[in-house]
Write a structure and sequence with these properties.
This protein is 11% helix and 23% strand. It is of the alpha+beta class and 333 residues long. The longest helix has 20 residues.
């Protein structure tokens, strides 16, 4: 019963009692209209979706910093499976331990979901700078001593007599004896033979020029220092001529014009490719590699490695390889 209905019933009862006590007739009670019923608000929360795991879902465990073996055990215990495995350099996570997962830790997924993970390679190694060969100084010649001339003594003239001459002849003045000139010649000090400069140690890695070199791809790293996964059957080689480069990507062959400067700048022209060496004319997917090679902007080479890099930081690292015969491909004009 609402509050209005209760008040109405109380007024009617009060009027009846007043009529009985006063001896009069009881007035006809008027019916008070009941107030319309309103739905009282409830404080009960409505059902909302939550991220809590249920019977068929599970939260991805946090395996960051764990070894790969422990991480796989934790994923299996949670009812999940291991997805794609990738490797990347990291300055904060030790080599062989998990850097991150996808989906990330704490996300609720269906049981049996494959979780991708990245394993650390450790800090990225920095290539040692290529030492510049030192020039051997030329031996300096010892100057030959010059002989100083000996000053000849000058004869002092005799003074003219001031006395008046007499009638008697006087003996002529005698000339002073001439001084003998020195006959001994000065001896020059002995000259020592020039000493050869000390030999400099040969550097372990010598800078080389690109023409005439052949390389094999060992590593491809993107701008986030993460390995670019290439097909396992994609064996990549690269050889440089004077103005053209060529190589193989699996059974396919490619060629392109290029230009490089001694200060480390390089530009690669349009790349042409042929599948003549591939069975049924079908070869591996080398699009990612060829696009990166086409965008190369800088180069650095030594007797131990070659590194090409794009302006965005994507790097291709090669090791020396023996020259191999590949199908003939002409670079685009």
């Amino acid at each position: 019963m609402s509050r209005s209905a209760r008040l109405g019933a109380g007024l009617v009862l009060l009027m009846l009692l007043t009529a009985c006590w006063g001896g009069g007739s009881a007035p006809t009670p008027t019916r008070t209209p009941a107030a319309p019923a309103t739905d009282a608000p409830t404080d009960e929360p409505t059902d909302e979706p939550t991220d809590e795991p249920g019977d068929t879902t599970v939260a991805v465990p946090d395996v960051r910093g764990e070894t790969e073996a422990d991480a796989l055990v934790a994923l299996g215990a949670a009812g999940l499976t291991a997805g794609d495995r990738r490797r990347a350099y990291s300055d904060s996570v030790r080599s062989g331990r998990v850097i991150r997962t996808d989906p990330r830790a704490g996300v609720v997924v269906e049981r049996g979901t494959a979780v991708d993970y990245v394993v650390s390679r450790g800090p990225e190694p920095t290539p040692s700078p290529t030492p510049k060969p030192t020039r051997t100084p030329k031996p300096t010649r010892t100057p030959r001593p010059t002989e100083e001339p000996t000053a000849r003594p000058t004869e002092r003239p005799t003074e003219r007599p001031t006395e008046r001459p007499t009638d008697e002849p006087t003996a002529p003045p005698t000339a002073p004896p001439a001084t003998a000139e020195p006959t001994a010649e000065p001896t020059a000090p002995p000259t020592e033979p020039p000493t050869a400069p000390p030999a400099t140690a040969e550097p372990t890695a010598v800078a080389v020029l690109l023409p005439g070199t052949t390389w094999a791809l060992t590593t491809a790293v993107d701008e986030d220092a993460t390995d670019i996964v290439l097909p396992e059957e994609l064996l990549v080689t690269l050889a440089f001529g004077d103005t053209d480069l060529s190589g193989t990507a699996g059974c396919a062959a490619y060629a392109a014009p290029y230009s490089a400067t001694t200060d480390g700048a390089i530009g690669v022209g349009e790349i042409s490719m042929t599948l003549e060496g591939c069975p049924d004319g079908e070869g591996p997917d080398a699009t990612a590699y060829l696009d990166t090679l086409r965008a190369a902007a800088t180069w650095a080479a030594s007797s131990t490695h070659l590194r090409l890099a794009t302006a965005e930081g994507v790097r291709l690292v090669y090791a020396p390889a023996e020259a191999q015969a590949s199908p003939s491909v002409s670079p685009p004009a």
